[in-house]
Write a structure and sequence with these properties.
316 residues; alpha+beta; Lipocalin; nine-stranded mixed sheet; two-stranded antiparallel sheet; disordered N terminus
C-alpha cells in the first residue's frame, strides 16, 4: 500500500509529453581563468545565465572524470564529515518539478534539450513517432529498476541518509538505493567493472555540497519520450540543500555515443510536511498492482495482461 503523496505523484507522472530532440547551442566559457563553480556567481539561481554557465562548465571538460577532478581540486581535495557536523537532509522528499521529463526546464510539448548524435536523434524521433501512434514500451514495465541517471526523475518518494563515510540516496520505487562513498576510496578498477543499474558512485564534500561521480552504468532511457543512454554514460552531480524544504542538484551527463556534448540539467526535490507522521517509505512490491502485469507486444507496444478499467463485481 502506497501513501497518498505517492499516489498523487504517480498520477502526475502518468502524463506523457510529446517531444522530439533539438540541438542547443554550444556554450563556451567567457572567462577561461574562472574556477569551475564561478559559473553560478553573478547570475540568480535558476536563471538562464546561470544555466548557460553550467552548460559551459560541462563542455570545458572532455569527460565526467575530468569535471569531477576539477571540482575536487577546487575544493582542496574535499572534506570528510564528522557525526557532529552532518547536514540535515532528514525527511521525505519528492521531485519538485519536471514531471517525467529528464530536464525540468523542458516546456510542455517541446522537445528534450539534449544535443544528440545523429543515431540517437533518429532513435528518439522513431520512439516519439510510434508513441504518437499508440505504440510505446517502457523498459521498467517489467518491474526492473529505473537505473541512473533516470533515477533522478522518478516521481515517487525519496529519502537521503548522510553519514561521514557514505550517503544513501533512497528512491521508494523498487526499494532503490544509490550508495555514494565519501570515505576517500576510488572507483572499482576498470578490469573489475560491469554494468549496474545505479553504477559505482564516489564523492566528496565541499562545504555543504556533495559532489558525486558515477560510472559503471547500464544502458537505459532518461524517461518516456526522452532519449536513450548507453552503458558508457557517466554523471557528475552537485547536491545541496538550498533552503529548509528544498534540495537542488546540478547534473552533467556524459555519454559520447549518444550526446554531442554533456547534457546539463538542474533537478530539485521538495521536502514534504514533517507534521504528517504517517508519511513514510514502505516496501515496494511491484507485483502487488495488476497494472504492473505488462508484456511487450510484437509491434513494440505495451499489453496489460488481464487489466480492465471497468468495475468488478459492482465495486469501484
Amino acid at each position: 500500500m502506497q501513501t497518498t503523496a505517492t499516489i498523487k505523484s504517480a498520477v502526475a507522472g502518468v502524463a506523457l509529453i510529446a517531444a522530439t530532440a533539438f540541438p542547443v547551442s554550444t556554450i563556451r566559457a567567457q572567462d577561461p581563468a574562472a574556477t569551475p563553480l564561478d559559473d553560478a556567481r553573478g547570475a540568480p539561481s535558476g536563471s538562464r545565465g546561470a544555466k548557460e554557465r553550467m552548460m559551459a562548465l560541462g563542455t570545458q571538460h572532455k569527460t565526467a572524470a575530468d569535471l569531477y577532478a576539477a571540482l575536487k581540486k577546487q575544493a582542496g581535495g574535499g572534506t570528510r564529515l564528522a557525526y557532529t557536523s552532518l547536514p540535515d537532509w532528514t525527511g521525505v522528499y519528492t521531485r519538485a518539478r519536471g514531471g517525467i521529463t529528464f530536464d525540468p526546464d523542458q516546456k510542455p510539448g517541446a522537445p528534450p534539450t539534449a544535443k544528440l548524435t545523429p543515431e540517437f536523434q533518429a532513435r528518439l524521433a522513431k520512439r516519439i513517432e510510434e508513441a504518437n501512434r499508440g505504440i510505446e514500451w517502457d523498459p521498467i514495465s517489467t518491474c526492473a529498476p529505473p537505473g541512473h541517471p533516470r533515477w533522478l526523475t522518478e516521481p515517487f518518494l525519496k529519502e537521503f541518509i548522510v553519514t561521514p563515510d557514505q550517503t544513501w540516496l533512497i528512491n521508494e520505487m523498487v526499494n532503490d538505493i544509490r550508495r555514494i562513498y565519501t570515505d576517500g576510496r576510488n572507483h572499482v578498477p576498470a578490469a573489475d567493472r560491469y554494468p549496474l543499474y545505479n553504477g559505482d558512485s564516489i564523492g566528496f564534500w565541499d562545504g555543504d555540497k556533495l559532489v558525486i561521480h558515477t560510472n559503471q552504468l547500464t544502458e537505459g532511457i532518461y524517461q518516456r519520450r526522452n532519449p536513450d543512454y548507453t552503458n558508457q554514460v557517466e554523471t557528475v552531480e552537485i547536491w545541496q540543500k538550498t533552503n529548509a524544504t528544498l534540495i537542488e542538484v546540478d547534473v552533467w551527463v556524459y555519454d559520447p555515443p549518444a550526446l554531442v556534448e554533456p547534457w546539463y540539467t538542474k533537478q530539485s526535490y521538495a521536502k514534504l510536511d514533517d507534521q504528517d507522521k504517517n508519511l513514510r517509505i514502505r516496501y515496494w512490491h511491484c507485483g502487488e498492482n495488476q497494472n504492473n502485469a505488462v508484456g511487450k507486444t510484437d509491434g513494440g507496444g505495451s499489453q496489460f495482461q488481464g487489466f480492465t478499467f471497468g468495475n468488478q463485481g459492482g465495486k469501484p
